[in-house]
Structure formats: structure tokens, C-alpha cells
Amino acid sequence: MSSDKKTIAKTGLIGVINQIIFAFLGFASRKLFIVYIGTDILGLSATYTNVLSTLALADLGFDIAVTYALYKPLNDGDEAKINAIMRALKTIYNVVGTAFIVLSFAALPFLKFFITDMEFKDIYYVYFLMQALASASTYFFAYRRTLLVADKKEYVTKTVDTVAMFIFSILKILVLVLFKSYLIYVACSVIQAFVTNIYIYVKCGKVYTYLDNSVKTDKKVVSDLLNKIKDIALGKISGYVYGCTDILLISKLISTVVAGYYYNYFNVISVIKQLSVNLLGPLAPFIGRSLAEDKDPVSQEKSFRMYTYVRFLVAVVLLVPTLILVDLFIDIWLGAEFIMDGIIVMLICADLYISLVHSSLVDYINGSGLFKYEKWISLAGAVVNLGTSIILALKVGLPGVLTGTVVAQVLYWTCRSVVVYDKCFRSSKLFVLYWFRMLGYLAVFLACVFACRYVCAFINTDWKIVTFILRGIVCEILCGIIVCVAFIPSDEHKTAVQWALSKIRRKA
Predict the structure, then answer these.
(1) How far is residue 394's CA from residue 495's CA, in Å, rounded to a whole number?
(2) DSSP string of 159-180?
(3) What is d(CA 257, CA 166) in angstroms, rounded to the nearest whole number?
């Protein structure tokens, strides 16, 4: 267990360092991008990214199915089974990668459909195909990432990604300043994708020396994976509708330029979201493997409550300052003309809050292999999300698109909680108590927001960056006080405090 904790800490720490570097260089690059390339190309790039996400549905969640399939053979040390699964995944991804490239070319005639309020040029086709080439490299080389993640060695891939990202981000900044060329900028992204994926492919081969590409594909293993995909596919489609259609709808129904403005906020929130993933993501493989060992519903539910509380704490620490400070950050970063209406920030943060807190349910559903229930939830959410977003976008514009996403998130949360408490914990009483806790969590979160907003209104200096830092510090202090006071009686808080004190004593 001590080894597991060290692995979680190592993976989380590397992920956080990765994200800090990514955020700093990413914001610098985005600022220079707008200065030297323009907001219209920024909107175009965001739209293309989401079109490619649509084509990426070709894999339909094989990585999830394979990760789940690898838990048992990794626990048992069954090298032959692991090799068979990885060989099957390679065969599948070769087909998927080829299909992705074919679909990318097939999508070319339809690109103009998503671009509004700007002239479409022939060079835009080249931009799209280059971005597609970078994405395609993942299927042919990086499928071995899945094995590292399932084996609790995700820190290996994160380290490689961090180094490559640092080098190529600096290179892209130089390209923007010296050449002011989006074509060269995209070329750097293509080279980065290939270099990173090939390196991880080779590295994984050295870590798992028993992997043998000459082994023939086992049709039964492929068939088993395809059977699992039937239950995961709708979830993948739903994830796309939830995560990628917003910018496409904004670009088509409102404006590609507006999509570029929104994409600035989207980038800030993406950094916050990825930071939370880096902090919490390393826990997912451990949850899956612990569920395979511990079948006691009472013990599982206790661990689930603690995990949900940790996710809530991360939501408070990351999201409350974001709500209060994001407009000031946009002002410092890009200029006051890029600030959008307050309702936009509220809806984006509401979406991320629900995602952060309720994703403990997702991890338990995936860890328990309850894919057949997830697919119907995902289908319903996708329909509600897309339908609501389109209808409201036509009536109220950008806020309508984001409202549709939040409504779908509430549906996901409700339905997934029913599945977990019925199939994993088998208790309707605990289900009711769960929702009372969630309402309490929301009340505390809102109390933190209102308290921080009120106090920060009095903090102003002649330098915006100083104001930003002071308000950020105040937000974290106030949130810490409010959370501690609100949850002193709870078992989850006591456990968290005891763990923190034990760490302090050990270091002392």
C-alpha cells in the first residue's frame, strides 16, 4: 500500500508540474498567437480541433475497455495474456488509425459548413490535414500508453509529455515571433506528436520486454474487446457531444470569431480541469484494482465517500478562485476587450463543478465494469445536451449552448448515482444520504464563492497583477476556513486531517 501511495503521489506531482509548465507556456503562446496570427485563425483552430474530435470517435473507447481488461492479468502477472491484449489493441488501432485518416480526407468538403463570418481560404484545408496527421500518430504508436496507465506507471508518459511540451512550446513561441506563420506553427505540433508517441512506444517496449509484435492476433481477445466496446461506445459518443460540440455549435450558429473569444475562457478552464485530472487521475487505476479485490459494499461505499470528499475539496480550491479571478486574468493576459459576460463564466464553472464532484461515480462505474448501464445514461445525456444547446443557442446565443451542457451534466450526475448505489453499494438509504451530502457540498461551495467575492471587492491596487495575486491568496484562505468550519463533524474531514497530521509528524 505504501508503494501505491508513492506511485499516486509521483504521478500526481509530475502531472501538476506538467500542467504548470503547460499553463505558463500555453498562455504565453496564446497571447502571441492572437497578436501575430489573429483571433479569426484562433477560432478556426478551435473549430478544427473539435471536428477532429468527432473523427476520433472512430476508436469508440478501446482504451477504456483495454484498461479494464488489463487489471486482472497485471495483478496476476500473466504476461502471455497481457501480450495478447496489447497485440489485439495494436491490430484494432491500426484499423482505427487508417479509418481516421480516410475520414479526415472525407471531411474536407464539409469544413466550410462550420466556418462563419470569415473568408474560407484553400490553405485552411492544409491546416486541417496537418492537425489530423498529428492526431493520427496516436493510433499507430501511442496505444502502449494504455498499458502504462493500467499498470500505475502513468508518470512515465507524463514525464515524456512534459519534456516534449516544454521544448516544442518554446519552439512554437519562436515561430510565432520570428515567422508569424500558422503553417509552421502547426508543423511543430505534428513533429511533437510523432516524436512523443514514438518515444513512448519504444520506452514501453523496454519496460515490458515480453511484448512481442510477432505474436499473431488472437481473434477471441479481439472479439472480447469488441463486445466490451458495445457498452462503451455510446459513452464515448456522449463524451464527444458533451465536450466537443459546444465550439462547433458556437462557430456555426453564432460566429467563428465568437468561438475564438470563448476559446480563451475554454483554455483557462481546460488548464484548471487538467490540473484536477493530474491530481485525481492517478487514483482511477487503484480504484479499479481495489474493486476487483474488495467485494464488501459497505467498505466500498466508505471509500467512495472519502474519494468524493477529496474531489469536492479540489473543486473548491480550484474553482472558487477561478470564478472570482478569471475576468481579471483575461484582462491581464489579453486585454479588457476579450472579457465576456459574467453568465458565461458562471455556466462554464457550473459545468466543471458538477464534472469534478460527480466523476467519482464515473470512476466506480468504470472500475466495476458497469458499462452496459453507462451506455444508456450517455445516450440520454447526448440527446439532451445537443437538443437543448441548439434550441437555446437560437434563442439566447452563447449562454444557451453552455446551458445545454450544464443540463446534461445534471442528468449524468443523477442517473450515475442511481447506478452506483444500486449496483455497487446496493442501498437506497445510502443513496438518499449521498444526495443530502451533495446539497451540503453545494451550499458550502456557494458560501465560499459569495464570501470571496465580497472580500475581494475591497482588494484593489494600482497594479493588476498584484491585485490578482492578493485576491487569489485571500480566496484560498477564506475557502480553507469555511470548509474546515463546515465539515469539522464529518468522518471524511477527520480522516483527511488525521492523514495530513500523520504526514507532518513523519516529516518532522
Answers:
(1) 49
(2) HHHHHHHHHHHHHHHHHHHHT-
(3) 29
Contact 261, 338 (CB under 8 A): yes
Give the three-class secondary structure for 258: helix
- Going from the C-alpha of 356 to that of each of 220, 307, 317, 416, the distances in angstroms are 37, 11, 12, 14
Q: How far apart are CA 305 and CA 435, in angstroms?
A: 12
Q: Distance (Å, rounded) from C-alpha 286 to C-alpha 7? A: 10
Q: Kindly report, residue by residue over 74-91, the tens digit of the pLDDT.
A: 877 888 888 888 888 788
Backbone region of residue 64 per phi and psi (left: phi > 0; alpha: psi in -120 to 50; beta: other values): alpha
DSSP 8-state assignment for residue 152: T
In the chain, the N- to C-terminal Cα span, in Å, equals: 22
SS3 content of the chain, % helix, strand, coil (to 5): 90, 0, 10
324 in Cβ contact with 448 (< 8 Å): no
CA distance 228 to 232: 7
Other C-beta atoms within 10 Å of 103: how many? 16
Domain boundaries of the chain, sorted by first residue: 2-293, 300-339+436-508
pLDDT at 464 over 90: yes
Report which of 49, 88, 424 is spatially closest to residue 260, judged by C-alpha positions: 49
Cβ atoms of 150 and 89 closer than 8 Å: no
Write out the three cell numbers for 425.
453499494
CB neighbours (10 Å) of residue 122? 6
Cell, residue 458: 475591497
pLDDT band at 1 (very low <50, low <70, confident <90, very high): very low
User: Measured between alpha carbons, how far is residue 280 from residues 87, 98, 365 in Å?
Assistant: 29, 33, 16
Please report which confidence band the pLDDT of residue 459 belongs to, taking 50, 70 and 90 as the band edges. very high
The Cβ-side half-sphere exposure at 462, using a 13 Å CA radius, reads 0
**pLDDT at residue 373 above 70?**
yes
Query: Which residues have CB under 8 Å from 481's CB, separation 6+?
Result: none
What would the grid cell of residue 199 be?
A: 518515444
Dihedral angle, C-alpha 44, 50, 53, 57, nearest 10 °: -130
Q: Determine the 3-state secondary structure of 9 from DSSP.
A: helix
The pLDDT value recorded for residue 234 is 62
Between CA 154 and CA 37 the distance in angstroms is 35
Q: Residue 299 burial (CB < 10 Å; 0-12/13-18/19+)?
A: exposed
33: cell is 498567437
What pLDDT, on a 0 to 100 scale, did the predictor assign at position 436?
Answer: 94
For residue range 401-440, list pLDDT tens digits in order: 899 989 999 999 999 999 989 888 888 888 999 999 999 9
The DSSP result for 221-246, as a single string, is HHHHHHHHHHHHHHHHHHHHHHHHHH
At 107 the three-state DSSP class reads coil
Q: In whole angstroms, how far apart are CA 64 and each of 70, 80, 232, 284?
A: 10, 20, 8, 11
| Pairwise CA distance, residues 82 & 211, whole Å | 8
Lowest mean per-residue pLDDT among 33-37, 419-423, 445-449, 490-494 = 490-494
